[in-house]
Amino acid sequence: MKRVLPVLLLAFAAFAQTGKQPKQLTNADAATSQQDATDFVRDLRGAKTQQFGPQFGFAANTFPVKGAEGKTVRFSAWIKTENVRDGYAGLWWRVDGPGEGTDRPQLAFDNSQWRFIDGKPDAGNGTVRGATGTTPWTLYELKLPIDKTASNINFGVLLTGTGTAWVDAMKVEFDGEPYSNPQVDFDFESSTTKGFIVGCGGSAICTGYKYKVGIDNTVSYSGHQSLKMQFVGDAATQK
To answer: How many CA atoms, within 13 angstroms, populate the side-chain half-sphere of residue 11?
Structure first.
Protein backbone atom coordinates (compact mmCIF):
# COMPACT_ATOMS: atom_id res chain seq x y z
CA MET A 1 0.00 0.00 0.00
CA LYS A 2 1.40 3.35 -0.99
CA ARG A 3 1.84 5.73 1.96
CA VAL A 4 4.47 8.42 1.61
CA LEU A 5 3.50 10.66 4.55
CA PRO A 6 1.26 10.13 7.57
CA VAL A 7 -2.06 10.06 5.81
CA LEU A 8 -4.99 12.10 6.76
CA LEU A 9 -7.79 13.33 4.75
CA LEU A 10 -7.16 16.51 3.29
CA ALA A 11 -4.49 17.56 4.74
CA PHE A 12 -1.80 17.22 7.05
CA ALA A 13 1.47 15.96 8.13
CA ALA A 14 0.25 14.66 11.41
CA PHE A 15 1.05 15.94 14.86
CA ALA A 16 2.71 13.34 17.02
CA GLN A 17 0.76 13.29 20.26
CA THR A 18 3.46 12.76 22.87
CA GLY A 19 2.31 15.18 25.52
CA LYS A 20 4.46 17.93 24.00
CA GLN A 21 3.12 20.95 22.15
CA PRO A 22 2.17 19.77 18.63
CA LYS A 23 4.32 20.96 15.75
CA GLN A 24 2.51 23.71 13.82
CA LEU A 25 1.28 22.57 10.42
CA THR A 26 2.06 24.47 7.26
CA ASN A 27 0.02 24.81 4.07
CA ALA A 28 2.67 22.80 2.22
CA ASP A 29 2.31 19.99 4.76
CA ALA A 30 -1.43 20.01 4.31
CA ALA A 31 -1.46 19.94 0.53
CA THR A 32 1.16 17.22 0.30
CA SER A 33 -0.55 14.98 2.83
CA GLN A 34 -3.89 15.30 1.07
CA GLN A 35 -2.42 13.75 -2.05
CA ASP A 36 -1.16 10.88 0.09
CA ALA A 37 -4.64 10.53 1.59
CA THR A 38 -6.09 10.27 -1.90
CA ASP A 39 -3.61 7.52 -2.77
CA PHE A 40 -4.32 5.72 0.49
CA VAL A 41 -8.09 5.65 0.06
CA ARG A 42 -7.71 4.64 -3.59
CA ASP A 43 -5.52 1.73 -2.56
CA LEU A 44 -8.02 0.63 0.08
CA ARG A 45 -10.87 0.59 -2.43
CA GLY A 46 -8.89 -0.67 -5.38
CA ALA A 47 -10.18 2.32 -7.34
CA LYS A 48 -8.40 3.98 -10.23
CA THR A 49 -10.02 7.38 -9.88
CA GLN A 50 -9.24 10.24 -7.55
CA GLN A 51 -11.90 10.50 -4.86
CA PHE A 52 -11.59 14.13 -3.77
CA GLY A 53 -11.38 15.79 -7.16
CA PRO A 54 -8.14 17.14 -8.61
CA GLN A 55 -8.10 20.09 -6.20
CA PHE A 56 -9.96 21.39 -3.17
CA GLY A 57 -10.14 24.09 -0.54
CA PHE A 58 -9.77 23.15 3.12
CA ALA A 59 -9.45 24.16 6.76
CA ALA A 60 -7.48 21.78 8.99
CA ASN A 61 -6.86 21.41 12.70
CA THR A 62 -5.62 18.95 15.31
CA PHE A 63 -5.86 18.59 19.06
CA PRO A 64 -4.38 16.47 21.85
CA VAL A 65 -5.41 12.83 21.87
CA LYS A 66 -5.26 12.71 25.67
CA GLY A 67 -8.80 12.70 27.01
CA ALA A 68 -10.30 11.57 23.71
CA GLU A 69 -9.08 7.96 23.71
CA GLY A 70 -11.77 5.33 24.01
CA LYS A 71 -14.59 7.79 23.35
CA THR A 72 -16.93 8.54 20.45
CA VAL A 73 -16.57 11.92 18.78
CA ARG A 74 -19.45 13.86 17.30
CA PHE A 75 -18.17 16.55 14.94
CA SER A 76 -20.71 18.99 13.52
CA ALA A 77 -20.99 22.33 11.74
CA TRP A 78 -23.55 24.43 9.91
CA ILE A 79 -22.84 24.69 6.18
CA LYS A 80 -24.41 26.95 3.52
CA THR A 81 -23.58 26.56 -0.19
CA GLU A 82 -23.97 28.41 -3.45
CA ASN A 83 -23.65 26.68 -6.83
CA VAL A 84 -21.45 23.82 -5.61
CA ARG A 85 -20.98 21.57 -8.62
CA ASP A 86 -18.80 18.54 -9.42
CA GLY A 87 -18.02 18.12 -5.74
CA TYR A 88 -19.35 18.96 -2.29
CA ALA A 89 -18.69 20.82 0.96
CA GLY A 90 -18.32 18.67 4.04
CA LEU A 91 -16.59 17.65 7.24
CA TRP A 92 -13.61 15.34 7.61
CA TRP A 93 -11.98 13.50 10.52
CA ARG A 94 -9.01 11.17 10.81
CA VAL A 95 -7.64 9.05 13.67
CA ASP A 96 -4.20 7.40 13.45
CA GLY A 97 -2.97 4.53 15.61
CA PRO A 98 0.34 3.99 17.40
CA GLY A 99 3.66 4.12 15.59
CA GLU A 100 5.87 6.65 13.89
CA GLY A 101 5.45 8.33 10.52
CA THR A 102 4.15 5.97 7.84
CA ASP A 103 4.05 3.05 10.28
CA ARG A 104 0.91 4.38 11.97
CA PRO A 105 -2.30 2.58 10.91
CA GLN A 106 -5.46 4.50 10.09
CA LEU A 107 -8.03 3.68 12.77
CA ALA A 108 -10.95 5.84 11.63
CA PHE A 109 -11.60 8.17 8.70
CA ASP A 110 -14.57 10.11 7.34
CA ASN A 111 -14.59 12.92 4.77
CA SER A 112 -18.37 13.17 4.25
CA GLN A 113 -18.05 10.67 1.42
CA TRP A 114 -15.55 7.92 2.16
CA ARG A 115 -15.84 6.38 5.61
CA PHE A 116 -13.58 3.73 7.19
CA ILE A 117 -13.45 2.10 10.62
CA ASP A 118 -10.44 -0.08 11.46
CA GLY A 119 -9.34 0.23 7.85
CA LYS A 120 -12.58 -1.19 6.48
CA PRO A 121 -15.50 0.51 4.66
CA ASP A 122 -18.28 1.48 7.06
CA ALA A 123 -21.90 2.58 6.67
CA GLY A 124 -22.30 5.38 4.13
CA ASN A 125 -18.98 4.67 2.45
CA GLY A 126 -18.89 6.16 -1.06
CA THR A 127 -22.04 8.23 -0.60
CA VAL A 128 -21.73 12.02 -0.57
CA ARG A 129 -23.03 13.24 2.78
CA GLY A 130 -21.93 16.81 2.31
CA ALA A 131 -23.66 19.84 0.79
CA THR A 132 -24.11 20.21 -2.97
CA GLY A 133 -25.79 22.78 -5.19
CA THR A 134 -27.29 25.86 -3.49
CA THR A 135 -28.50 25.19 0.05
CA PRO A 136 -29.50 27.23 3.13
CA TRP A 137 -27.71 26.83 6.45
CA THR A 138 -27.92 23.13 7.29
CA LEU A 139 -26.41 21.12 10.14
CA TYR A 140 -23.98 18.37 9.11
CA GLU A 141 -22.36 15.91 11.48
CA LEU A 142 -20.31 12.76 11.66
CA LYS A 143 -19.54 10.32 14.47
CA LEU A 144 -16.43 8.18 14.80
CA PRO A 145 -14.84 6.05 17.52
CA ILE A 146 -11.51 7.15 19.01
CA ASP A 147 -9.59 3.98 19.76
CA LYS A 148 -7.68 3.77 23.03
CA THR A 149 -4.49 3.31 21.01
CA ALA A 150 -4.95 6.54 19.00
CA SER A 151 -1.81 8.64 18.58
CA ASN A 152 -3.00 11.42 16.27
CA ILE A 153 -6.27 13.16 15.40
CA ASN A 154 -6.82 15.65 12.57
CA PHE A 155 -10.08 17.21 11.40
CA GLY A 156 -11.58 20.03 9.40
CA VAL A 157 -13.81 20.99 6.48
CA LEU A 158 -13.35 20.92 2.71
CA LEU A 159 -14.82 22.05 -0.59
CA THR A 160 -14.28 20.07 -3.77
CA GLY A 161 -15.57 21.10 -7.17
CA THR A 162 -16.77 24.61 -7.96
CA GLY A 163 -18.93 27.10 -6.12
CA THR A 164 -18.82 28.57 -2.61
CA ALA A 165 -19.41 27.18 0.86
CA TRP A 166 -19.69 28.87 4.25
CA VAL A 167 -19.08 27.05 7.54
CA ASP A 168 -20.10 28.26 10.99
CA ALA A 169 -20.85 27.16 14.57
CA MET A 170 -18.50 24.19 14.47
CA LYS A 171 -18.75 21.82 17.44
CA VAL A 172 -16.79 18.85 18.78
CA GLU A 173 -18.17 16.54 21.46
CA PHE A 174 -16.71 13.43 23.11
CA ASP A 175 -19.32 11.05 24.54
CA GLY A 176 -21.74 13.98 24.55
CA GLU A 177 -19.41 16.38 26.37
CA PRO A 178 -18.52 19.57 24.44
CA TYR A 179 -14.84 20.16 23.69
CA SER A 180 -13.45 23.68 23.82
CA ASN A 181 -10.02 25.19 23.36
CA PRO A 182 -9.21 28.92 23.74
CA GLN A 183 -6.64 28.53 20.97
CA VAL A 184 -9.30 27.48 18.44
CA ASP A 185 -12.21 29.63 17.24
CA PHE A 186 -14.93 27.16 16.27
CA ASP A 187 -17.32 30.06 15.55
CA PHE A 188 -14.93 31.96 13.24
CA GLU A 189 -15.51 35.25 15.02
CA SER A 190 -11.79 36.13 15.18
CA SER A 191 -10.02 38.32 12.64
CA THR A 192 -8.17 35.24 11.38
CA THR A 193 -8.99 31.52 11.10
CA LYS A 194 -7.73 31.03 14.65
CA GLY A 195 -6.39 27.53 15.22
CA PHE A 196 -6.89 26.39 11.61
CA ILE A 197 -4.55 26.00 8.67
CA VAL A 198 -6.43 26.97 5.50
CA GLY A 199 -5.61 26.76 1.84
CA CYS A 200 -5.92 24.45 -1.14
CA GLY A 201 -4.43 21.13 -2.08
CA GLY A 202 -4.67 18.19 -4.42
CA SER A 203 -2.80 17.00 -7.44
CA ALA A 204 0.52 18.77 -8.04
CA ILE A 205 0.03 20.33 -4.59
CA CYS A 206 -2.67 22.71 -5.76
CA THR A 207 -0.84 24.10 -8.76
CA GLY A 208 -2.88 27.11 -9.82
CA TYR A 209 -4.34 27.93 -6.39
CA LYS A 210 -7.95 27.50 -7.40
CA TYR A 211 -9.50 28.02 -3.98
CA LYS A 212 -9.67 30.94 -1.58
CA VAL A 213 -10.36 30.15 2.08
CA GLY A 214 -10.76 32.69 4.87
CA ILE A 215 -13.06 34.69 7.13
CA ASP A 216 -16.24 36.25 5.68
CA ASN A 217 -17.73 39.09 7.76
CA THR A 218 -20.82 39.43 5.57
CA VAL A 219 -22.38 35.95 5.99
CA SER A 220 -22.98 33.98 9.18
CA TYR A 221 -25.21 31.39 10.81
CA SER A 222 -24.55 32.75 14.30
CA GLY A 223 -22.48 35.71 15.42
CA HIS A 224 -21.13 37.99 12.71
CA GLN A 225 -18.71 35.90 10.64
CA SER A 226 -18.15 32.51 9.08
CA LEU A 227 -15.46 30.52 7.25
CA LYS A 228 -15.73 30.89 3.47
CA MET A 229 -14.31 28.38 0.97
CA GLN A 230 -14.60 29.49 -2.65
CA PHE A 231 -13.52 28.16 -6.02
CA VAL A 232 -11.90 31.12 -7.78
CA GLY A 233 -10.50 29.57 -10.97
CA ASP A 234 -6.98 29.19 -12.26
CA ALA A 235 -4.27 31.48 -10.94
CA ALA A 236 -3.75 32.85 -14.45
CA THR A 237 -7.27 34.25 -14.47
CA GLN A 238 -6.70 36.06 -11.16
CA LYS A 239 -3.84 38.26 -12.38
So the answer is: 30
